[in-house]
Amino acid sequence: MGTENPGRPNFPMRPSATPFASAPPPVTPFSTSGPVASEGTSFRATLPTASQVTTPFSSAGPAVGQGVSGFRHSPPTRFSDPSVPSAPTSYIPPAGAPFQRFPTPQFPPTAQAAPVRGPPVGQAPLQPPVAQVPSPPVSFRPQSSIPPVSKGSPSPTVNFPSGLSQSDSSFPGTGPNFQPSFPSASSSYPAARATLQPPLPGYVTKQPAVPQASPMPLVFHAQPGSYMPPPTPSPPFSAQQGNYVPAPPLATPLGLQSRDQMQYPGSMPPVGGIQSLMEDFSSLSLTSMPGSIGPGLDSTVLPRPLDGDVEPKSFVETYPLNCNPRFLRLTTTAIPNSQSLVSRWHLPLGAVVCPLAEAPEGEEVPIVNFASSGIIRCRRCRTYVNPYITFTDAGRKWRCNICSLLNDVPGDYFVHLDAAGQRIDLDQRPELTKGSVEFVAPTEYMVRPPMPPLYFFLIDVSVSAVRSGMIEVAAQTIKSCLDQLPGFPRTQIGFITYDSTIHFYNMKSSLTQPQMMVVSDLDDIFVPLPDDLLVNLSESRTVVEAFLDSLPSMFQDNLNVESAFGPALKAAFMVMNQLGGKLLIFQNTLPSLGVGRLRLRGDDPRVYGTEKEHILRLPEDPFYKQMAADLTKYQIGVNIYAFSDKYTDIASLGTLAKYTGGQVYYYPSFMSVIHGEKFRHELARDLTRETAWEAVMRIRCGKGIRFTSYHGNFMLRSTDLLALPAVDCDKAYAMQLSLEETLLTTQTVYFQVALLYPLGGDVNKRYTASCGERRIRVHTLAAPVVADLGEMYRQADTAAMVSLISRLAIEKTLAHKLEDARNSVQQRIVKALREYRNLYAVQHRLGARMIYPESLKFLSLYGLSLCKSIPLRGGYADAQLDERCAAGFTMMALPIKKLLKLLYPTLIRVDEHLLKPSSLLDFENIMKRLPLIGKSLDSRGLYIYDDGFRFVLWFGRMLSPDISRNLLGADFAAELSKVILIEHGNEMSRRLMGILKKLREADPSYYQLSYLVRQGEQPREGLLLLAKLVEDQIGGTSSYMDWILQIHRQVQQNA
């Protein structure tokens, strides 16, 4: 695309303006709008008879003209019209157009016609005879003799004059006008200027408006994945000075061909078949709506991800030996073979990894123990044995799929090969048949013996923490989870509390009550009784329980408002650095004493919009980043629980979680009565979910490509080794890919993720003898190498793309303004769609259509949702600084499904289902999602909004009082901000609570609290729900429709 081909004719540069400045559009082989000519054929254009009607595959539009003549183009001939001779039934494709899948009529050859000239401008031409035009082909089925187009491949493009690239000259950007010659037998023949625009699969053709002619009705056939607004008139399509107008292809009537086309009938792009084109792209018509002046669009045809994340099943079926997509997904499963192709791919090229994702239901990651033979690995690149290696030399050697090195097969692992070259024990070797396996690692993989799982709790006990009830909920939850902590019976546990001083607790098993030791010297921290501050849980269980029972009352009268968080953090590090483990911090007050004290910032609105804005989102004190590095070095992972209703500088505190593989939980204005259940559930899951300790992760890939940048919560230990002191099933990591070589020569590239970790225990199992062994979880994936940009678009994975783009945008806010981050998201989408449009701008008259790959049809909406998300939206007044930073830390670690649900939440209507008999209830019907737009809300309904972190129950103003009374009890008429949703003793209430329970069980990583709001309750309704309807225009932000139009205008500027 954009390269020159001297074998094809160049278009003339900037002809003088004429009434014929607008070139006719292409006619596809399945159009019945007019006659079709092949090489060496001549005929006379004929006005179709009046008896013709529109057929399903016809686009019989009116002529486009500027008043030169009153010629009108009638509908095409009815196939059964006896007055017109039938078309030939056989067809041999011309040499110049080998990619056509549908037959075009073949006409009898005639003698070579001498060059002729068209009629003078302004002269009224005569009409040609009617009976001299052959009818279109009777069948639209492709003939067996026609070579088919490879699935989804784009048609070749037109080459441009020297010095012009396609991006410069393709419609409708700036470029030379192309004006074809119009040969005619004599001046008495009309200049054939009828618009023969065929409908393209996947979108609806708009007919140009013409004076003195009304458009004919069209029959529209919906294709899978297409969006078809009703046809509406559009302004006449006229060429502008400097614009390139696509020339007609070979299938155009001879009367509309230029001399160059007659001499080189294969020089223009062939038109693909219906199925090929439909798979290539879909489109939206952005022309004027009836009765409007400006561009318009029917909002009902906009693509929406109402089914949530859909994993790429076709790719899984093509490569069945790959790991499950929930472990590893690529942004496109077609890897570019050259740097030039990468430069035209304006979207991120990379992967999203969730190494400990929960396996699909009914499946488990198989465990492989090589025992005496040791783990089989490539001796050069260290790739683990996987389904894509090949065995040679009668099974004595195996070839690495990553670096192609031949390796010897250990004697203990050797078996003979069958006739197909496969091992005869293949069905007994999961490492050779499964994309995901877990190897038992021998002792040489251990830097030190696996440490026992350690949980250490650092708890703020200042007055605000006591009054909020946080201490009581934390103590109760920890106590309830003691039996479920992984690693029994080796689990270690310890506690430190702090306000203006630091409190250590001796919990030695010989004691009946814990002993508290207070250290008030914050400048020179020391650890009293270092051997007794960490205890074995199974040995000191009674002492630990006694401490947790007494903790809330111990500080109930505390009036201390200070927070010596920095010194307390250093003390915790000194206690833990021998074993490593997980540090859980419960912070309720801005650190105010000792090292790491912080000050109020971010309350100056004048900083927003300036070059200093991003500094607010960075840690104020380098102490926190240095502590994070030290914690990671000693294998300590940190999770932050922040509760304050005042500024606590999450930007600084969150750094501890970011670089240690942890996460941030934020509960603004925490009150145990309201938020206690959410805190209790999320803390319990944090304590009991499967966790990998002291883990390191590396992802290997084939020769010629490498990963250059990594995004998520971790510490990068070397160029490609991620240090993860604690990693679990709720964390994902993104990375970007680049090509090291100018051209890849392989047909397939392979990726392998390896996570090395000691096994601390599982929430569902009790490990005794196996406790302390190391495991290596390996995920392997193969992907094809392509030389076609169109194929990269077709194999794109929107979900993985959005996950990577989100991380890049959030990281951009740490060095630039929020506006710059939002613009970067939009520009990525614009450049990608512009490049994609250029693939088709030559062979198809696109006009005011926005085209996009079917695989990326939701990308624009997710981009809009990302720009409206808390980390990126608005400015000073749109989100509190702590809320913005906490959301950023959370989104950086979310797996794909969870992130997509946060960006485009679920909205469902439930009042109709609450009234149905129990026997008719169907949960799938209840879960029918609605577009996030105000029009989806009916004032007579009850709706649930679910973003994965909270529920919002919206009660319509005209909702039946009986429903409200059954669900809310005596408070049904009260202000809903003061009502807490609980189960009442009736079937309707139990049914609603059952629906909420099922929604929570679908993703247990976070707990959704229920917020109730009634229609019209402001500002509560706006804050809780209306501002979250991402498709609406709220607070100066773009609506979905406006966003699409903005992107389309920018795409057209340089397309």
From TrEMBL:
<dbReference type="InterPro" id="IPR029006">
    <property type="entry name" value="ADF-H/Gelsolin-like_dom_sf"/>
</dbReference>
<dbReference type="Pfam" id="PF00626">
    <property type="entry name" value="Gelsolin"/>
</dbReference>
<comment type="similarity">
    <text>Belongs to the SEC23/SEC24 family. SEC24 subfamily.</text>
</comment>
<dbReference type="Pfam" id="PF04810">
    <property type="entry name" value="zf-Sec23_Sec24"/>
</dbReference>
<keyword id="KW-0813">Transport</keyword>
<feature type="compositionally biased region" description="Polar residues">
    <location>
        <begin position="141"/>
        <end position="179"/>
    </location>
</feature>
<feature type="region of interest" description="Disordered">
    <location>
        <begin position="221"/>
        <end position="244"/>
    </location>
</feature>
<dbReference type="InterPro" id="IPR036174">
    <property type="entry name" value="Znf_Sec23_Sec24_sf"/>
</dbReference>
<feature type="compositionally biased region" description="Pro residues">
    <location>
        <begin position="227"/>
        <end position="236"/>
    </location>
</feature>
<dbReference type="InterPro" id="IPR007123">
    <property type="entry name" value="Gelsolin-like_dom"/>
</dbReference>
<dbReference type="Pfam" id="PF08033">
    <property type="entry name" value="Sec23_BS"/>
</dbReference>
<feature type="compositionally biased region" description="Low complexity">
    <location>
        <begin position="97"/>
        <end position="133"/>
    </location>
</feature>
<feature type="domain" description="Zinc finger Sec23/Sec24-type">
    <location>
        <begin position="375"/>
        <end position="413"/>
    </location>
</feature>
<dbReference type="GO" id="GO:0006886">
    <property type="term" value="P:intracellular protein transport"/>
</dbReference>
<dbReference type="GO" id="GO:0090110">
    <property type="term" value="P:COPII-coated vesicle cargo loading"/>
</dbReference>
<feature type="region of interest" description="Disordered">
    <location>
        <begin position="1"/>
        <end position="193"/>
    </location>
</feature>
<dbReference type="InterPro" id="IPR012990">
    <property type="entry name" value="Beta-sandwich_Sec23_24"/>
</dbReference>
<keyword id="KW-0256">Endoplasmic reticulum</keyword>
<dbReference type="InterPro" id="IPR006896">
    <property type="entry name" value="Sec23/24_trunk_dom"/>
</dbReference>
<dbReference type="GO" id="GO:0008270">
    <property type="term" value="F:zinc ion binding"/>
</dbReference>
<feature type="domain" description="Sec23/Sec24 helical">
    <location>
        <begin position="797"/>
        <end position="900"/>
    </location>
</feature>
<keyword id="KW-0472">Membrane</keyword>
<dbReference type="InterPro" id="IPR036180">
    <property type="entry name" value="Gelsolin-like_dom_sf"/>
</dbReference>
<feature type="domain" description="Sec23/Sec24 beta-sandwich">
    <location>
        <begin position="692"/>
        <end position="786"/>
    </location>
</feature>
<keyword id="KW-0963">Cytoplasm</keyword>
<dbReference type="InterPro" id="IPR050550">
    <property type="entry name" value="SEC23_SEC24_subfamily"/>
</dbReference>
<feature type="domain" description="Sec23/Sec24 trunk">
    <location>
        <begin position="450"/>
        <end position="686"/>
    </location>
</feature>
<dbReference type="Pfam" id="PF04815">
    <property type="entry name" value="Sec23_helical"/>
</dbReference>
<keyword id="KW-0333">Golgi apparatus</keyword>
<dbReference type="GO" id="GO:0000139">
    <property type="term" value="C:Golgi membrane"/>
</dbReference>
<dbReference type="InterPro" id="IPR006900">
    <property type="entry name" value="Sec23/24_helical_dom"/>
</dbReference>
<dbReference type="InterPro" id="IPR036465">
    <property type="entry name" value="vWFA_dom_sf"/>
</dbReference>
<dbReference type="InterPro" id="IPR006895">
    <property type="entry name" value="Znf_Sec23_Sec24"/>
</dbReference>
<dbReference type="Pfam" id="PF04811">
    <property type="entry name" value="Sec23_trunk"/>
</dbReference>
<dbReference type="GO" id="GO:0000149">
    <property type="term" value="F:SNARE binding"/>
</dbReference>
<feature type="domain" description="Gelsolin-like">
    <location>
        <begin position="935"/>
        <end position="977"/>
    </location>
</feature>
<dbReference type="InterPro" id="IPR041742">
    <property type="entry name" value="Sec24-like_trunk_dom"/>
</dbReference>
<dbReference type="GO" id="GO:0030127">
    <property type="term" value="C:COPII vesicle coat"/>
</dbReference>
<feature type="compositionally biased region" description="Low complexity">
    <location>
        <begin position="180"/>
        <end position="192"/>
    </location>
</feature>
<dbReference type="GO" id="GO:0005789">
    <property type="term" value="C:endoplasmic reticulum membrane"/>
</dbReference>
<keyword id="KW-0653">Protein transport</keyword>
<dbReference type="InterPro" id="IPR036175">
    <property type="entry name" value="Sec23/24_helical_dom_sf"/>
</dbReference>
